[in-house]
Amino acid sequence: MKQPLQSHGISTVDDFDACVVRSDSSSIREFTFTVADFKRISGLIHARAGIALNDGKRDLVYSRIGRRLRALRMTSFREYLDQLESSGDDAEWQAFTNALTTNLTSFFREEHHFVRLAELLAKRAPGERMLLWCSAASTGEEPYSIAITAAEVFGTLKPPVSILATDIDTQVLDTASQGVYADERIERLSEERKRRFFRRGTGENQGLVRVVDELRELVTFRQLNLLDPRYPVRGPFRAIFCRNVMIYFDKPTQYQVLSRMVPVLADDGLFFAGHSESFFHAGDLIESCGRTIYRKAQR
Ligand SMILES: C[S@@+](CC[C@H](N)C(=O)[O-])C[C@H]1O[C@@H](n2cnc3c(N)ncnc32)[C@H](O)[C@@H]1O
Questions:
Q1: pLDDT by residue (tens digit) across 207-234?
Q2: 64 in active site
Q3: Bridge partners of residue 184, in order along the sequence
Q4: Of 18, 102, 142, 245, which one has the fewest beta carbons inside 10 Å?
């Protein structure tokens, strides 16, 4: 559904709509890409995924959506957007969304969270299978870091945890479920972690590592848009990782997302946020209990 740009809270760009966007004054681009096209794309991705694109993202948008135009042999952004909006083509909408997500991640990013997670896992009740949710899993480094932490706490590759890993982007989920990475992605991990949790590729897979099968089996990957009004997930989750995705959402959207997550968070569960995210505006739902760590508001 298209909404007026103002309602998305997106800062407006140059209103000279007829202007063809150029990367610099000397280079004219392959495709016609007007300021109006950029505004239209910003509005569509904001309505669909909550992602707010500021003016600084124009080059990125040109390059990412330009690939779709090339694949579809189109010559202008307007043609592409007209077809996208009129066709109702789910596959192209997904390709459009995948093209505009930012998927930066790494193993054990914000390491202090995994120390706290390990303390939480160590408190497992006898016989309990602990449910954990990684809600912006990207290419998988985060859910596998959760799995590694669990394997270390319980001293086995089959720890009593189940990890649900979700993302809106189907392309990153494909990468995540394969669990194959360039070996420099794990270079900062200890030798012990590399040896226990990864297998090195040989021959044509030289330079690649694969997460061991036992850890991959702990993780279930599913697509889930955090903007959806209902989440088809069943908790209660002892931990929810929701890191470095809420930064793309405005505060009312963050509040709505939290109001859907908190009911599936266990009463003694932990909610892990990204390093620059804070939720003091949602104090009736969650409260801080550590550096970018939250728990259910204790009423
Ligand atoms: C910057 S990455 C963060 C990855 C990981 N959580 C971390 O902190 O390293 C943000 C991820 O959020 C996902 N994302 C963006 N909008 C989303 C939405 N509406 N619903 C679910 N995931 C979304 C993107 O596809 C991307 O993989």
A1: 999 999 999 999 999 999 999 999 999 9
A2: yes
A3: none
A4: 18
